[in-house]
Design a protein that fits this description.
The protein is mostly helical. The chain is built from six helices and no strands. It is elongated, with a radius of gyration of 61 Å.
Length: 277
């Protein structure tokens, strides 16, 4: 923008031109007012130039139409058919042709200009029709996508409602299980502390490791093994009892078996005593 005094002068000249002989209303001289008036002035000048171009174009077309009208009038006179002799229908047709020429903005009213204008309209109609079809295809695609989106939304909404319903049904059970889980966790912690305390008490009391649960289980297993070994020996001993007493070798064997049996019974008693300690 020019300097403020120069712009103010330009605005003042423009306002005087706009109001003509009337006095220009007073206005406040500040930057905001000057900027607003400056934009209005530029916009008005731009519109004036556009309007002037349109007026010049219309004047030129008017001259061309008048020239064509004179040419047609001369042609009608040459064939002894002046405009004054035309019928009402002929005059209406002539006016219709003139209006069509104005509407289609033809260069003149010749047949070629009409045909070119009609071809131009046909091309525009074809383009508009293709554009309309393209817009219809896009609209149809959008409609299908919208239907699909609505369907998905309804499915998701139904799934959300089902989940909410399941949550409402399962919430009491989940809360119950959470309480039970907390209870079991506390009990496990309590038992763990007791185990540690009992282990410390066992260490302090210097308890024999043989009475521990693991040792007792091992002794029980060994006891069962001894019982298994003892059963066939008893059976064998019973067989020797049926032998004649006069065989010295048999007596020796029986004594050996008795000693073995006594040893096993002693071991069995010791194991039983350990389990009852």
């Amino acid at each position: 923008m020019d300097t403020l005094p120069g712009v103010t002068e330009m605005i003042q000249v423009w306002l005087e031109k706009v109001f003509g002989g009337d006095s220009v209303p007073s206005y406040e001289l500040n930057k905001r007012t000057i900027d607003t008036l400056y934009r209005l002035m530029k916009l008005n000048e731009s519109k004036d130039r556009d309007t002037s171009l349109v007026i010049d174009d219309l004047r030129q077309k008017t001259e061309e139409y008048n020239s064509e009208a004179r040419r047609l009038e001369n042609l009608l006179k040459k064939i002894n058919l002046p405009v004054a002799n035309l019928s009402q229908s002929g005059i209406m047709s002539l006016r219709t042709l003139a209006n069509v020429a104005l509407l289609m903005q033809t260069k003149d009213v010749s047949e070629t200009s009409y045909l070119l204008a009609l071809q131009h309209l046909h091309d525009e109609l074809y383009k508009t029709s293709e554009e309309l079809k393209r817009e219809e295809r896009i609209t149809q695609t959008l409609i299908e996508k919208t239907k699909s989106a609505i369907h998905k939304y309804n499915c998701l909404k139904k799934a959300a409602e089902d989940l909410q319903e399941q949550k409402s049904k399962q919430l009491p059970e989940m809360e119950k299980r959470a309480k039970e889980s907390g209870f079991l966790h506390n009990k496990a912690k309590e038992y763990k502390e007791k185990i540690i305390r009992f282990q410390n008490e066992l260490v302090k009391s210097k308890a024999d490791p043989s009475i521990y649960h693991g040792s007792l289980i091992k002794n029980s297993e060994e006891l069962q093994a001894l019982k298994s070994q003892l059963a066939p020996l008893k059976s064998k001993l019973q067989t020797y009892h049926s032998l004649p007493p006069d065989f010295s070798l048999t007596k020796v064997k029986i004594e050996e078996l008795k000693q073995e049996l006594a040893r096993l019974e002693s071991e069995l008693s010791r194991r039983i005593d350990l389990m009852h300690m």
